[in-house]
Structures are given as structure tokens and as C-alpha cells.
Amino acid sequence: MSTQPHVVALCGSLRDESHTRTALGHALDGARDRGASTELLDLREYDLPVFDPDDSDAGDAERLREAVRGASAVILGTPMYHGSYAAPLKNAIDYCGFDEFEETTVGLLAVAGGSFPTGALDSLRTVCRALDAWTLPHQVAIPSAYDQFEDGEFVDDSLESRTRVLGQRVVEYARIEPNPPSFESEQNAGGD
Predict the structure, then answer these.
(1) What region holds the NADPH-dependent FMN reductase-like domain (predicted)?
(2) What parts of the chain have a pLDDT lower than 70?
(3) Is the CATH code 1.10.3470.10 the one for domain 6-183?
């Protein structure tokens, strides 16, 4: 029996007027186009102190893990800061692990105030690979984000289409079953 896929988008921006959050909304629209239920996980709504492995259940950690674990697929969205992804997203991912990401389809989206945010996307792809996630080849890079939106809508139709396709693709690949298990998933127990 087929069940409705559920896609969550994890927003790594804490800004009130976040272009990342706006773009993730469009990606989630694409997921809904393919019949998925969706949820935006806004890190402003979670109490997540800086990750400490001695207190991995601090604050809202379990609530975050449950939301990610319950997803058929995940979209990670971030602004690019100094060539990489934002600290709030890194902190949230640190509270998660293999239980949340292993063999889970993940889509990537990054925005930048300037040039293409490929550094952030590359860094996220590396983290997802370490967690044995199944990261889509299709990704979204939004440069010059201040010029890309007007009243919450894209000004460039092709960029809007690419963003919606990301949401559609995570649904299409949500049930992928990568195998065999990776060496990393069996050996990477954490940095004790």
C-alpha cells in the first residue's frame, strides 16, 4: 500500500526576511505538486543550544530529530556565509545523525548575497555523504538573492522552476533504497 510522502525543509537562516525561507517555501510547493505533505522546520522555533555531545538531548533536540526522522525526504536550505553553510543549520544537523539521515533522500538549496553559493552546497553535500544520505544531483543555487525576489515571489521564472523541481525530485526519489550499506554507516560512530 502506498502512503503519502512527507517532506520537511530545514531552514538554516534565522533572519526574519529570509530569502532561504522564501525559496524553501517554493520548493515545498513543488513537493506538494507531487502529492507530498510538507513542513517547514524553522530553526527560530527550536531551542537548540550549541551542540555538546555530552548533552545531545538539550532543548528541543528530540523534537527536531522526530520531525526529521518522520520525513520521507528532507530539503536542507541555507544562506552562504563565508563560503560555507550557516551555523544554525550545522548545529541542527549535529543534533541529528544516521537515524535521521541514513538512506534518506536529501535536496540542497543555498542562497547568497553575491555570487553562486556553490561552497555552501559542496559543504552540505559532504556532510550528507558522511551521514549516508542519498543526496540528489539536482540542487538549487540562488545568487544575488536580494534581486531574486519581489513580495515573496521569484522575479526569474527559470529560477522558480528550478526550485520547484527540487521539491518535485525529493518526492520522486523519496523511496529510493540505496544499497549495499556504506562503510561509513557501519564504521563512523562519532568523534568520541
Answers:
(1) 6-146
(2) 1-2, 177-192
(3) no
